[in-house]
Design a protein that fits this description.
The chain is an alpha+beta fold. The protein is built from four helices and seven strands, in the order E-E-E-H-E-H-E-H-E-E-H. Strand 6 and strand 7 form a beta hairpin.
């Protein structure tokens, strides 16, 4: 049902934040640093990889499919609807396997400046934030252009979050239903 996003099939850098303690909760939530997407999202990611490669860049993935159980844990830790979808609200594109959190890296796998770190729950994370450097603004626009060209929609409050259009057309999946073994 879900496609594993693994190099070399997908020329990406994986830095799965929720398999480590380097995330907004300070605790790992996944057993393994793996990324999964629905086939339609994996195809759109492939298109984004190709567009980025054409200008000498790569994508670094922080998160993709997220088990519903993890979304519930996130919401219990930080119930902030500006940056997290309530698990009972039905939106939750990550739990549907149609969202990805990512950034751009150069040929040395160094992240391009984006003005904030991934998962910074602050207004500076919003697309269009003006309190960041012009370089970070350009990099965010570059990422948005790459992702839009490949068929992704953006989240206005998180520069790192992209999802397929009409995510509610896909069902929410628990870890058992997805068969990923992430938790």
């Amino acid at each position: 049902m879900l496609v594993a996003i693994t190099p070399p099939e997908f020329d990406v850098v994986l830095d799965i934040a929720y398999a480590t303690s380097h995330n907004f909760t300070g605790h790992p939530h996944y057993k393994h640093p793996h990324a999964y997407l629905r086939p339609e999202a994996a195809e759109a990611l492939s298109r984004a990889i190709t567009v980025a490669a054409g200008i000498g860049l790569r994508l670094k993935i922080f998160d993709a499919y997220r088990p519903l159980e993890v979304q519930k844990a996130f919401w219990e830790h930080t119930p902030d609807p500006e940056f997290l979808s309530p698990p009972e609200g039905g939106s939750v594109p990550h739990c549907r396997g149609v969202a990805v959190d990512l950034t751009l890296v150069n040929e040395n796998e160094e992240a391009l400046p984006m003005g904030t770190v991934f998962d910074a729950f602050t207004p500076l994370s919003h697309h269009g934030a003006t309190g960041i450097s012009p370089e970070a603004q350009r990099n965010r626009l570059l990422l948005a252009g790459i992702m839009a060209t490949a068929g992704w929609d953006y989240n206005p409050t998180e520069w790192w979050h992209y999802q397929l259009f009409k995510p509610r057309e896909y069902p929410v999946l628990s870890d058992a239903e997805a068969g990923t073994g992430l938790i």
